[in-house]
Write a structure and sequence with these properties.
alpha+beta; Aminopeptidase; 8-stranded mixed beta sheet; 6 helices; 39% helix; 35% strand; GNAT family N-acetyltransferase; GNAT_dom; Acyl_CoA_acyltransferase
Length: 183
Amino acid sequence: MRVINDISEQHAEVTGLDVRRVNESAEMQSVSRLAGELWRNHYMPIIGPAQVEYMLDRFQSPSAIAGQIAAGYQYFMLYHDSRPIGYFAWLADSADSSLQIGKLYIGQSRQRTGLGSRVIAFTERHCRTQDLRQIWLTVNRRNHSAMAFYLRNGFVNGGCLLQDIGAGFVMDDYRMVKELPPA
């Protein structure tokens, strides 16, 4: 497991913070377990238990995560004092000069501490090294706290997206976009 120190070194006020790239099966299982905790806590009131369980199985099971990594996603776990507190994942598209943040989840006790903003800043630095000019993501239209977070971090609402994900469920999202100025 490779420790990425950019986030913790750049923000010394958070001691004991590690960012680790996810590559091994055991790490994917850890992400899946954490996703279950975080998603059930946060999304039950927004999309309901049936859709949460369906999406966890389809998108955040260890095998789904392994498939995403095989397709080019990079997953990272956030640890504080060796305890997992969040995770994020992204997928670069060099043809489009963009990077999609496919996942960004922080445990409730760590939200509103600046950690999510550090992840965004870390992502921006990565994009600049890869000559990527845009970061984008999707956020559930009823997830008001996340939308406010992304707006505070320089994203703009790029419009509605409605995607059928099977089993009678849809993702009813906004596409949030942040343009990065040339270096």
